[in-house]
Every structure is written in C-alpha cells, then in structure tokens.
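[stage:ingest] chain + small molecule (EPZ)
[stage:ingest] validated
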Amino acid sequence: MAKYIVQKSGPLHGEVEISGSKNAVLPIMAAALLAEGECEILEAPALRDVDVMCKLLRSIGSEVKEDYDNGRIVIRTDKIIEEQAPYELVKRMRASILVMGPLLARTKKAKIALPGGCAIGARPIDLHLKGFQALGAEIEQGHGYVEARADKLTGGKVYLDFPSVGATENIMMAAVLAEGNTIIENAAEEPEIVDLANFMNKMGAKVKGAGTDTIRIEGVPSLHGTRHTVIPDRIETGTFMVAAAITRGNVLLKNVVPDHVKPVIAKLIECGVSIEDSDEGMRVRGDLQPLISTDIKTMPYPGFPTDMQPQFMALLATVSGPSVVVETVFENRYMHVGELNRMGAEIKIEGRSSIIPGDKTLQGAQVICTDLRAGAAMVLAGLMAEGTTEISEIYHLERGYSSFADKFRSLGADLIKVED
Ligand code: EPZ
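[stage:predict] done
[stage:export] tokens:
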C-alpha cells in the first residue's frame, strides 16, 4: 500500500491549475447513457473514480474512449446490454448508484448493488428510490441488490426530505425521458446539479430550476449526444485555498469559479486570509497577518460544504483562538479528528460539534486517510507539523484528486509518495 511522507514545508507559493469537478463529471458520465448518439466530455479529471465509472459504463454496453492527457472522454451507448451495476464495481465507488436513473429511463429497469455505508455515514438511498416510485417505478430489494422496474415512467412530484445531491441527480436523469412533467421539491442546489442540467438540456432535455430548491422537468421522447465541458472542482479549489492559508503562503489558483466557493472565501477572510480575484485567477495569501479562529457549520449548498470540513479543521487547529465546527450533513464525518489529535490538535467532539482549541504547533506522526477529504486534511496538517508525517491508505485521496502530490510539490510542498 502506498503512503505519503510529508515534511514541514515552508509557505506554499506559485500557481496551481484546478481540474474538472469529480462530483460533476460522475453524474454527467452516467447521464450519457440517456443519449442515442455520442457524448464528448471535456476537462474530465484523471481520477480512479472516473476510471471505475468508465468500466461500469462499458459493462452496461457503452463504448467509452478515454484520453485523460487531454481530459477528454467520449461515450456512445447504441445498445444497453446489461441493466445493472455489479457489486464489485459499486463497492469501489458508491457513485455507481447514479446509473440507476438513466438505466430506468432508457430501459425501464435497473438492478444496482446497494452501495452500503462508508467512513462518513450510512449513506442510505431511500430518497433516490422515493423519486423513482413517484415516476411510477416498482422497487424490490434483496440479496444486497435493489431493482427498479416500470412499464413506463410518467412525470410525478417528489419532495426530498433532505436536499440530497445524489437523489436529486438520479431523479432528474430518470425524469427527462418520462411522459409528462416532474417536479422535485427541496432539491439540492449544488453547482454540480446545474452542470448536469446544462449537459442534459444540451442533449435535448427540458430541465428548469436547477440551482434552486425546485426543479421542473418536461419529459421528452429521446435525447441526442452532445459535447460538454465540466465545471472546475470547487472542493479541490477550497482544498488549495486552505493549503495556502495553513502554510501562511501566497498561491494563485487558476481555473476557479469564485461563485462556487463563496462560503469558503467568507470563512477564510474571517480567519484573516487575503483573497483577491482577478483575470489571472484567485490569489490566496495567508502571510499578511496572524490568522485567527472562526466557527464553521456545514450545510447543503449554498452553505459551507461538508466536503471542506476536514481540511478547514486542520487549519483551525493552527490559528490563534478556539473554534467550533458543527457537521450537519453526515452523521460520522469526524474520523479525521482522532488522526489530527495524534498530531497534537487536542480537538474534542461533543455530539455533532467539534471544539478546536487552536494555538497548536502540530507534531508529525503516522496517521491514516479515513476518507477522501480527511486524507487531504492530513496532508495539510503535515505541511505545518514539526517533523515528518507519514500518511497511509492514500488510495482514498487518489480516488478524488488528480495529480494531488504533483500539484502540492509544484507549490513547494515537501511531499513524496512511497510504496510500502
Ligand atoms: C454527494 O454525495 C457527493 N458525492 C459527496 O462528496 C458530498 O459530500 C455530498 O454529495 C454532500 O454534498 C458525489 O457527488 C459523488 P447526499 P451524496 O445524498 O449524493 C442523506 C466527496 O468527498 N441521504 O447529498 O451521496 C445522507 O445520509 C463526497 O467528494 C438520505 O438520507 O450525498 C447524508 O446524510 C463525499 N437518503 C445526506 O443525505 C438518501 O437517499 C447528504 O447526502 C440520500 C442521502
């Protein structure tokens, strides 16, 4: 198993290019199943998860050509040969569940291995299934699989008890070929939802209201292929913004959509970080004044993103003054706290809240990546910790960040990858 060896690094400096969004490209690749024709996806990030999605689409019957060096994936699905996502692929990537909506729309049936839980929570799919039932599908579960079938899909109305990103995406993809109109209320409003809607509308779908809490879809008989450039990854953006802050550095981020990271900008400014946006990119400086604490509460978009909570907690451990972090989206997204405490952070968990005392000089230690974003937090902490930090189980990280180590090294991070 590979690991990262991270030494205390001076302030990061230079510039970094943000890649295409993992959480936009995965649903868009799944939506390509809906098209009778070729879909060309540009700015696709080179990630393990994208690779798994390519394998899954091929197993369903798609012809997939990937040209990662140029960020280009071409998908063509003339015939669906298998309406299912097998366990061996779903267990590697829970986002495999996103093929359920398109399969149901295209073939009126879908059989998916239940994704199961992960380090950050139980990750149920009840809201996905509630949406499919609202469109007329029958649902059956058994032997670790869930199956949806329908003679035909008709537009319906569904209220999401929680604005689930995946459920919103899956229901959108099932509804675009349904007969009649669908309304999704209390829908997720993330930029990735808007990118998916834009992609499907270019295929001939009629999706309105993406980015608001109410999405209206008018079903159409069929969709054609299209070309689409994926939005930049707002979580990778936030991760490098925090990297500049925690190392008290001066970094220029390129290929950024500031609107997509407004809560991260607001919170970093509260900590005393300088952020300037210009035509050349977004410059983030943590070197202009001593950094101070702030409080964080994760919320569905446009609130502070849960996927930035671990990284921001690493920063808060090193600033002056106490902070409180409240995680409201996932029930178990504090696995990184134990690892940060091994480095001397002295964080206390009280229910859904974490109290970070701050004013700590972290010490290098052997730690593990418990999940994708927690892994990023450990690297950020390692950049500031006295001595050496050894981070194992980094496959989590490489699933979701492309060229992660190279990008950090190009900014001056002392980080090497070693095979165990
Ligand atoms: C997406 O996961 C992202 N993944 C996650 O990013 C992100 O953390 C999450 O949205 C929230 O923003 C992708 O887009 C591939 P949810 P998703 O459904 O869709 C509950 C990363 O690090 N819920 O919005 O699975 C659920 O338990 C990953 O890139 C139900 O109760 O998230 C959770 O508490 C991690 N029933 C909350 O909603 C359901 O049917 C949010 O989950 C579905 C979800």
